[in-house]
Structure formats: structure tokens, C-alpha cells
Design a protein that fits this description.
about 55% helix; globular; about 250 residues; single chain; mainly alpha; about 0% strand
């Protein structure tokens, strides 16, 4: 079944849920799949990204602002997968091991860029930022020759791509309409009490950015990630004459 319908927002335990509709996967739930400490992994990823952004700020910024697909991201910006930074982060937080696929790396880098470039700056008005471009999804019918496992894999890839795009647009809307709360969340240390308070403050406002009938299940990793990604891109977007629409679904 193609992932054609909108998806369900479920915010459980202040975004601790990771159940996804129709087998789709919003980036970020890999932490829970690993069966290890989610908070420790979030801290490892944040430490890694800070190191990378300190070493390669221009390349990291380019990678976030150019909204390429994951395969292009990993191929073109492979230098951002800095082994020394990852080893340092592992050692700092007790040798935790984890994979960093493109979505998680993108989220971490965006978060670190917000902290490095925007945390001390006077916030710009995102209502006059030009609408962001989100990844286009090929909605053409799947190859009729695909059968069995290959068909299932193609359906899953299509579902994930569509879920990413919808979730990214959702993130842009939240940042535009709740800019101050998004900023408060992104300036809080991951897994800290302050971050928990920021999640609690912004959670009641998330529903505004859902198209009618939309459904998501999201967690702290992917919500903070999409807010960081869209916050940084909106801060760098061209300014328009008139405020952009709040909901970009």
C-alpha cells in the first residue's frame, strides 16, 4: 500500500512514543530500536555534532541548507562523518556505539549549527522568511514488475520518503508559528530538565500544524531534529515582502 494518507500525531510521555503508521519511519526512532539508553545516545550525537561543526562549519552549513536526499548527503558530505569526533564523543559518554544514518546526522548538525551560529543572535522574524523547499517525492506508480520482497522494500522506501517530506513541512510550520518556544527547546541541553520543560511547553501547540486527519507518532529525537533543521534553514532563508503562511502543508 502506498503511503498516500496523512499521518497521526501521538505525543506520549512528552514525546517518548515511537509507533509509526503503516510501517513508515520518521527519522529519529533508531535510538529506541537499539535497545540502549536513548538519553545517552542523544548526548553522544550532540557532542559529535558540536565537534564536527567546530571543525567544518561551512561544509556543515552547506549540507543542511541544500535539501538533498540522504544518499547524496552521505556521498557529497562524507567528510562530516568525522571519525575523530565520533570517537571523542563515544569516550566522553562511556563508549556507547551507534550508527549515524543520514537523517540523524542531518538533525544533529542542524542542532549544533543553531547553537554555534544563532543562539547568541537576535532572532529574525520567521514570518517573513521565504517558504522552504522540502524534498519532492516521486508519486508515480511503483514498477508493476516488482514482486515479493522487492515490492515490499520499494513500498517501504516510498512510505519513508513521503513521511519525511510531510514531517519536514510540519517542522517548518511549528518553527514559524512557535518560534520562541522552538528556540527555547533548541537552546536547552538534550536530556536536561530544561529540555523537558521546553517539550512540555511546545507540545500543546503542535496540533495546529497538522493537516486535518494527519497522524504522526513522534519522539524527542525526531521532533527536536526537525525543529533544528527548519529553524536553521528559516534563519538563513531570504526575507519576503509579506509574511509567509503559517501552515505549509
Amino acid at each position: 500500500m502506498r503511503f498516500a494518507s496523512a499521518i497521526l500525531l501521538v505525543v506520549a510521555g512528552l514525546l517518548g512514543s515511537t509507533a509509526f503508521a503503516q510501517g513508515s519511519r520518521i527519522p529519529g526512532d533508531e535510538y529506541e530500536d537499539a535497545g540502549l539508553s536513548t538519553n545517552k545516545r542523544r548526548l553522544v550525537m550532540a557532542d559529535f555534532a558540536r565537534c564536527v561543526v567546530a571543525r567544518r562549519p561551512a561544509l556543515a552549513s552547506e549540507a543542511i541548507l541544500l535539501n538533498v536526499d540522504n544518499s547524496t548527503f552521505m556521498r557529497r558530505y562524507g567528510k562530516l562523518a568525522d571519525g575523530d569526533c565520533l570517537l571523542k564523543a563515544y569516550q566522553t559518554f562511556g563508549g556507547v556505539q551507534m550508527a549515524l544514518p543520514g537523517d540523524l546526522m542531518r538533525y544533529a548538525l542542524a542542532d549544533a549549527l543553531v547553537a554555534a551560529e544563532l543562539s547568541g543572535a537576535v532572532p529574525t522574524d520567521f514570518s517573513v522568511a521565504a517558504p522552504l523547499e522540502h524534498r519532492q517525492v516521486d508519486d508515480a506508480p511503483l514498477d508493476a514488475k516488482l514482486k515479493g520482497r522487492k515490492l515490499a522494500e520499494a513500498e517501504q522506501a516510498s512510505a519513508k520518503a513521503q513521511a519525511w517530506t510531510i514531517f519536514s513541512r510540519f517542522g517548518e510550520c511549528v518553527v514559524r508559528t512557535q518560534q520562541a518556544k522552538a528556540r527555547a527547546l533548541l537552546t536547552a541541553k538534550p536530556a536536561s530538565p530544561e529540555e523537558g520543560q521546553a517539550f512540555a511547553a511546545i507540545t500543546p501547540d503542535l496540533g495546529y500544524c497538522l493537516a486535518q486527519g494527519s497522524q504522526f507518532a513522534i519522539n524527542r529525537t525526531n521532533l527536536r531534529g526537525t525543529l533544528a533543521l527548519n529553524y536553521f534553514r528559516l534563519a538563513k532563508a531570504p526575507r519576503t515582502q509579506a509574511p509567509a503562511a503559517g501552515v505549509t502543508q
